[in-house]
Structures are given as structure tokens and as C-alpha cells.
Amino acid sequence: MGSKFKNFSLIGLGMVAGVAASMQFSAMAQKNAASPLPVEELRQLADVFGLIKSDYVEPVDDSKLLSEAISGMVGSLDPHSAYLDKKAFKELKEGTQGKFVGLGIEVGMEDGYVKIISPIEDSPAYRAGLKPGDLITRLDSVPVKGLTLDDAVKKMRGEPNTKITLTIARKNEDKPIVVTITRELIKQQSVKAKMVEPGYAWLRISQFQEPTVEDMAKKIQTLYAQDPSIKGLVLDLRNDPGGVLPGAVGVAAAFLPKDVPVVSTNGQLPDSKATFYAKREFYSGRVSGDPLAKLPEAVKNVPMVVLVNTGSASASEIVAGALQDYKRATIIGTQSFGKGSVQTIRQISADTAVKLTTARYYTPNGRSIQAKGIVPDFNVEETADGDGFNSLRTRESDLQKHLSNDKEAESTRPKVDELEEEQRLIALAKKSKPLEYGSKDDYQLAQALNHLKGLPVKVTEPKDVHENKEGGDKSEKAEKADKADKSDKKK
Questions:
Q1: Identity of the highest mean pLDDT range in 162-166, 207-211, 418-422, 459-463
Q2: pLDDT for 47-57, tens place per residue?
Q3: Whole-model pTM?
Q4: pLDDT, greater one: 309 or 479
Q5: What angle do helix axes 62-75 and 39-55 make, rounded to 10 degrees?
Q6: Keyword set for this entry (predicted)?
Q7: Closest Cα to residue 342, out of 10, 1, 8?
Q8: Do 283 and 296 share a structural domain?
Q9: What's the CA gap between 116 and 130, in Å, rounded?
Q10: Is 372 helix (H, G, I), strand (E, B) or coil?
């Protein structure tokens, strides 16, 4: 393969269709391994390779054997390290540009099936009525069980205007749902914004992409053109799976003091020990000039709430963590996903690569988000009746072989009775409906606005929140302080 590799450093949630990745494009020589190669083990690998070639029931292509060997070796490390073949590598690069050909769904695995985490807004999957929690059991006529997530995603990707038939198992349906969807070029609009009430703005980032910082700056300028005296701003990062690291740094920099640290990384390699600051060179990317230069000065001090949930991961956790550490914003919602690791893309040929976990990342105060996530200041579930499908999401700490948190001990969610859980899912599916973020029915947004207005926030007793070092739950402390403050105001 040669000794020279191309490097792409990234932070992103690797469990989505259209992988969200943060990539810094730079070329460097891959350093030689410090330790000698295990000759005996490599000889065994060669022996097995030869045995398969000579004794297997039918001929096997050399490149297939070697690709699968690399895939198995890298995939055994952690949930986010993977071998990227030609198609997967191409899709990774496309995803950072905010476009890919496919169905437009974020997916994970559950019980051997592909589970829909959420359809991307305005995508073919969204228009076809696919819902969070749906299980894909067949892709065309191929059963999903037995496929890896990457294999399933590859089958859902394809050329524009080609069709694929999905068989769906939905909790409140007696029979499978069969739907045929036409693949399209998915162009994600990662930033949305509007005035939700006079004086109060809503800014949503659905994924961090290369154009995100510039698009966000334009949206903020438009908001302030509509109302130069904005009283409060809600930054909505719910179900944001991550994305390009410069995008996360730029979004945080828009609201933080100039030049402060936003995030740091640490790993074995010298290049993995780095700090990223709220400076133009860390977020401008390929854009000439500073995309944040023309923002109104008021945006640095406007009262803020950041909304997060279990679907908020990686780059979105970087932003929420930085704003929380500097006490620049109040975090409202439910505990985030907990992906605090950095992956680096090592290009091993012209069109293939290895995605390898090379570092953990840390908030400005040195907190590790890995397998923990961001704990909100106010724990508020998706609806007044509960956390909806969000409560069913897999988190980083649920994934097998996940990287540990090197700063504090992890806590696990309690196991539930399977029959009880099944009944709960059926009941939930029957009464649930897709939530439109930013709408009048958005319960968490309503609580965020209450907080900005100084009104009581209807908090929920957290079910899976770690205790902080002082002993006691941070969100509970925030709730008590808020209640005391409201009590003083009444007096």
C-alpha cells in the first residue's frame, strides 16, 4: 500500500446515512509504527489467506479477501472505526458538502434490523411517511438481518432517479408496510431561522457542513434585520448528529468572546493534541475572509438557550459544551448522545480509506463528553407526557466496544422488562406524531422561551443523568435555583 497516507481529521456520528464528518484536508506522511510488526501473527494471517485460496469450495477474489480482512480488523476496535471502500469514501466526502444521493434517513441498528432514527426534512423518505422508530426488514427482496449497517446503507444509496423498495415494521401496524422510494440528490439545508415570537428568534442547525457557518451568519443577519432588538435566541441542536469540526467551532465562535478556546483533542499522535479557538483560521475553511465579521455585536450578548436531545451528537455536543462551560447559554432538553471521539481518515489508495479513532475531545473546562454527553441545565422532555421516540434512541454508552470516558466513571441505563417495553412502544406509537421543530406544538421550544422570558420552566425528573463531582445533579441544582429565583420575584 505504500508508506504515505492522506490525512482527514474528523468528528462526526458514524451511525447515520450520509455520514456526518468534520474533515480538515491536509496531506502528511504517515509515521512508521513505533513497535515492530508481529511477524508470527502476520505469518498466520498469510497461512489462512493461502488456505482459503486453495481449499475453499469456490474461488475467492484476492481483493475481496483482503478488503474484508481490513474491514474486520478495523471494525473490531470501536463503533466508529471502519474501512471505507470506494463507494463509502465517496459518500463520506459528499456528506461534508451537504449533499448525497439516497433516501434521506438517519439510521442505526436494532436487533439486526435497520432502525430509522429520523428522516431528513424534505427528503424522499420524509415525503414517503417513514417515521422514527420504524424498522427496515427488507431492502428490495434482500432481508436486512445478517447485513452490517454499512452494507445496508450502501444498498440504500445509489444513482439519482433509481428506485428501492423498503419493507417496514412499525410498532402500531399489524402488517408490514411496503413502500417504494426514488433516490434523489439530497441537498441538506443545515440552517433554518425565524422569529417565533416578537423579540424571540429560533435558529436551527440540523447538521454541521462546510457551508454551515456562512449560512448561519446570513440567517442571523436576516433575523436582526427583522428585529434589531432581539430579546432572546434559541439555538436548536436537537437530532443534530454532528458534522464538520470547523462548522462547530464557527457556530460557537459566533456567540463566544473572541479567541477563546472552543474544544481540545488528545490522543497518542502529536497532531491529535490540539486546541481549537474562536478565531477565523479555525472555522473559515475554504471561505475567503471571516464569515462572522459582519454579525451584529448584539449577538455576543443576546440571552440564549440551546436545545439538545439524545440525537444531538459529536459536533453539536462541542457547541453545547462550550456555550455551557462559558455560561453563555442555558442548556435545555435531555441528555445528549455522548460521542466525544475524533476519527481520522487515512487514505490508503486513490479511492479507499480507513476511518480510525485517534483522539478524544474535551470542552473548554476539560470535560470529556465520551459515553456521557451533555447534561442539560433544565431536563425537559419532548412533550409534557414524555420524551417520545427520543427515549428509544441508542446512545454512545449503549454501543458495544465504545471508547471509555477517561475523566469520570460511566453510568448505565437500567434494563427493562422486554414485554413491558414492547407494550410501551405500542402505546407510544399509537398516540405519537412527527414533531415539527420550531412549530407552535414544539413543547421544548416553548419551555426555552419561558426561560428567556423569566417564566417557570416545566422540568422533568431526569431518568439517566450522571451526578457531578460536587454530589447531586446539575440540572436539579439549576431547577432549585430557578424556583428560588421565581419565589423571590413573587415576594
A1: 162-166
A2: 999 999 999 99
A3: 0.73
A4: 309
A5: 140
A6: Hydrolase, Protease, Serine protease
A7: 10
A8: yes
A9: 8
A10: coil
The pLDDT assigned to 404 comes to: 84
User: Mean pLDDT, the chain, as a whole number?
Assistant: 83
Active site residues: 314, 325, 339
- Of 237 and 123, more confident: 237
Rounded CA-CA distance 269/235 in Å is 34
Cα–Cα distance measured from residue 369 to residue 442, given in angstroms and rounded to the nearest whole number:
27
Confidence label for 424 from pLDDT (cuts 50, 70 and 90): low
- Tally of domains in the chain: 2
Cell of 4: 504515505
Query: Is 346 inside a domain boundary?
Result: no
Task: Tell me what pLDDT residue 423 has.
Answer: 54
**Residue 209 has which C-alpha cell?**
457542513
Quick one: 159 and 214 in the same domain?
no
Same domain, 148 and 205: no
| 106-124: average pLDDT | 83
Residue at a domain's end among 166, 187, 208: 187
**Pair (435, 330) in one structural domain:** yes
CA distances from 86 to 69, 154, 360, 473 (A): 16, 11, 27, 47
Residue 108 corresponds to which cell in the numbers above?
Answer: 442505526
Beta strands in 61-162 (DSSP E): 82-84, 99-102, 105-110, 113-119, 135-139, 142-143
Is the CB of residue 371 less than 8 Å from the CB of residue 338? yes
Q: Does residue 216 share a domain with residue 109?
A: no
How far apart (Å, rounded) are the C-alpha atoms in residues 31 and 274? 18
Q: Is 441 part of any domain? A: yes
What is the pLDDT averaged over residues 381-404?
80
Q: Which domain holds residue 238?
A: 191-340+362-490
Residues 183 and 195 in one domain: no
Q: Which residues contact 162 (CB under 8 A, 6 or more apart)?
A: 182, 183
- Say if residues 109 and 136 touch (Cβ distance below 8 Å): no
Which CATH number is 164's domain given? 2.30.42.10
Instruction: Among 154, 187, 220, give the residue marking a domain's end.
Output: 187
Predicted pLDDT at 86: 87
430: pLDDT strictly greater than 80: no
55 located within any domain:
no
Q: Are strands 304-308 and 330-333 parallel, antiparallel or unpaired?
A: parallel
238 and 316 fall within a common domain: yes
